Amino acid sequence: MPTDQIEMLWDCPRCSTKGIGGLKDNCPSCGATHDTTSAPWYMPGDVSHERRITDAAELRQAQDGPNWSCEYCGGTQRNADGACRNCAGARSEEQAERVSGRGQQAGSEYDDRPPISQWARYGDPPAPSRDNLVYRFIGCALVVAALCGGLLWALFTKRPVDVTVTSVAWTQTVSVERYKQVAEEGFDESRPSDAQNVKDLGSRVHHTVKVFDHNEVEHYTVQVEDGENCVAVERSCHTTQRTCTPNDNGTATCTGGDEVCTGGGEKCTTKYRDDPRTRDVPVYRDDPRYEDYYSWSVWRWKPERQVPHQGTTTETSWPDSEELCLNCRVGAGEKERESGRAATYKVVLVDEKGTKTFDHEPKSESEFHQYPVGSSHKAMYSIATGLDFSTTAL
């Protein structure tokens, strides 16, 4: 961003002359020497480009760096002056290093700034902006995490509970399967080697194949370029903010105040049109393929029946051999066998206050026997997992 220099102002404390140029070391009315302590520089009301310094000598003076104070008489001296213009006192090496270390070029930021009271005259430097969005996000995330943690704690935390069995139910079932002849049918590749009573049921559709039948004309369109669509873009201009920083020598370095424009001219986009086209699309038909189809019989083990026992006490039992009656009602060549056993157990319990009911499903018959109706038990309970009898309640 381009910079320029403007002249600051000071007021004479002796004759009250106002608005004296900052590059003047003496009051034009009474001749009093300028003293920055009693008469600090201040910004003019107008800091526009029209106020910038254009004289080459004054520009060099403005860009030469900050002034320094004489150790002997206290007079303010220009950076280019090697000795005091009032008493001819020489500038010390410490002063020269301090001044040179503050920077010589216009627009630099100095390490040794004027006293706070002098900055107050110029206007406080802008405070650094601070974006609080990150902190707000972290705060919200912590709140959400705390709420989720509290919910999980409420769901999974276990507490001891005393419960009493109010009812029980059980079912124990034995499955029986029978070796018998079953009827099947299918194509030759699915016929087992031990098939009996095979009968040919004639030809049936085994599968189909795709066969070309004819072409159909398909109409479609494609988009092709067809010139341009152009619209005028409105021109918009604005002036950037003007900012000035004191150079500590009666001048200030200013940036901004420039006119910035956007838009203008035309904005064009490609225009398209639909171009009709045609193409041949092949159409296929499903042609059936026939093979011989058969029926047959074959000896196989098949599920035959289930024999259950049920009850509402903890006294359980399985169907005995009489109830199963294996091979009692089989035909010639048939036979039966037990193919599996399955059991379900359910216990209903109520808490000590009688207000909450729990369902418990024991995993084995021996565990089920531990819960006769009216018996009391200690358990751990959580909303998420329910009753837990595997851990001794505290």
Account of the protein in words:
- The chain is mainly beta.
- The protein has three domains: 1-130, no CATH class; 162-178 and 305-326 and 335-388, no CATH class; 186-245 and 254-291, no CATH class.
- It has six helices and 16 strands.
- Strands 6, 7, 12, 13, 14, 15 and 16 form a seven-stranded antiparallel beta sheet that branches. It has a three-stranded antiparallel beta sheet with strand order 1-10-9, with no helix packed on it. Strands 2-3 form a two-stranded antiparallel sheet.
- Strand 4 (68-69) and strand 5 (76-77) form a beta hairpin.
- The longest helix is centred in the middle third of the chain and has 24 residues, at 133-156.
- The chain is elongated, with a radius of gyration of 51 Å.
